[in-house]
Amino acid sequence: MGCFNRRCGLIAGAVFGAVVAILGGILIPLGNSIIAGTVEKEAVIEPGTTAYDNWVATGGKVYRQFWFFDVTNAQEVLQNGAYPVVAERGPYTYLTRYLPKENITFSDNHTVSFLLPYGAIFEPSMSVGTEEDHITTLNLAVAGAYSLVPKILHFLLEKRIQATNSSLFHRHTIQELLWGYHDPLLNVTVGLFSPYNGTFDGPYNVYTGKDDISKVSTIDTWRGEKTLNFWGDEYCNMINGTDASSFAPFVDKNEPLYFFSSDICRSVSASYKATMDLEGIEVYRYTLLPSTLASPDINPDNMCYCTDKEVTKNCTVAGVLDIRTCQAGRPIYISLPHFLYGSQSLIENVRGLNPIEEQHFTFFDVEPTTGFTLRFAKRIQVNMMYGPSNVITVLKKVKDYTIFPLVWLNETAALDEATAEMFKEELISRIDLLEIIQKALLGSGVSIFLLCLILYCVVRRKDNQGKIV
């Protein structure tokens, strides 16, 4: 009877282990469903959710670091037609995007509109100098007028240049170059980002994800339009994806992420590069591909971005984006810093450049479960074009069109330690706890089942041997 009781106990233990294992197995899809439901609920842009709190005001500090290209041989360029030689100066750092979104308005079609205010506060402790440091660089007014004024009227421009004693290069402070100074040639305020403080980007209208979480943060309209009107082509004028601050939850690293950037007046895609660790949180790193600014003969999709075949050598120059059409005609070209991934001619026409992928590429790190961007570095370079002229004295020695680098910037932010801990406690730790319970139940259940099964076989064998004896 005792042996029989032992067998019953072991059978009961095996059954218990099997039940526990089954429970653990059931919890896997059930737990995944709970996780998905929780994440989707918190990812919706509406008051009271985690996404809304982070969406209204950026949690971490966003900085813009500027590196200027200081011309060291201005006279040789003017007098002998030498290639410009530049020396990088920076960073000069500003706190930006510290202001919350404004005019937030929800609509009945599950979208929300808002304005993104601009502001910049100088950060001396993160800069190599002060805003009063001087830089010798391309004269923005001369380069702009060269492009804007029809060639047939360049003789009038030459008279104006002479009358105001303007030249191809000039010297100004960091503050003046960025935020504006009065220019005698054009008799207006000129600056790379003038006006800035007190202005807005938008309005934007984005999907809240309330009815379809896969559309959360996706841009519906920008400045009241569903498409751009800069490029004269349906494909290039598309507004795709989000603003890159967040994406739909449950990111698939095999699929590209799409986002629109008003800084470059177009939509782009980024591809998965690597899985990284950020303050103990697993994130997917996405980067722009070299083909993003490739010439149309390499990437045919870029043909509609080629708007000036003369400057771009019949659309064969890679690495720059002519955004004059969204800059009121100003000859602004956007590239990656130091013309990374660009044509060799760009680097040869301006000496002193040294593109380094690790320092100059754009990336953003996305937490795959929530789709939140937790760290990013958006690096772009602002360039202007000037070219040869038989009329304008300061351009007579210029041999060919030159896309000149003015400044490159790194707009960056990262999750700080305190916010990372809060993020892990509120979401990641709950997911991890549920996974631990699932694995513990499954593992212990299988272990109990196997142990009881093995012991049952041993006991039965001994009982049988005892009967034979």
State the domain count. 2
Query: Structural class given helices, strands, pairing?
Result: alpha+beta
Tell me the overall shape: elongated
Uncertain residue segments = 17-21
How many helices in DSSP terms? Answer: 9
State the end-to-end CA separation. 17 Å
**Nearest-integer average pLDDT:** 86
Query: How would you sum up the major sheet?
Result: 11 strands, antiparallel
Q: What is the C-alpha radius of gyration, as a whole number of Å?
A: 31 Å
Task: Give, in order, the helices and strands.
Answer: HHEHEEEEEHHEHEEEEEEEEEHHEEEH
Count of β-strands: 19
Fraction of residues in β-strands: 25-35%
Q: What percent of residues adopt helix (DSSP H or I)?
A: 25-40%
Q: How would you describe this protein?
A:
By secondary structure, the protein is of the alpha+beta class. It has 2 domains: 2-40 and 426-468; 61-98 and 120-197 and 227-415, no CATH class. Helix content is 30%, strand content 27%. The chain has 9 helices and 19 strands. Strands 1, 2, 5, 12, 13, 14, 15, 16, 17, 18 and 19 form an 11-stranded antiparallel beta sheet that branches. Strand 17 and strand 18 form a beta hairpin. The longest helix is centred in the last third of the chain and has 52 residues, at 417-468. Mean pLDDT is 86; it is low at 17-21.
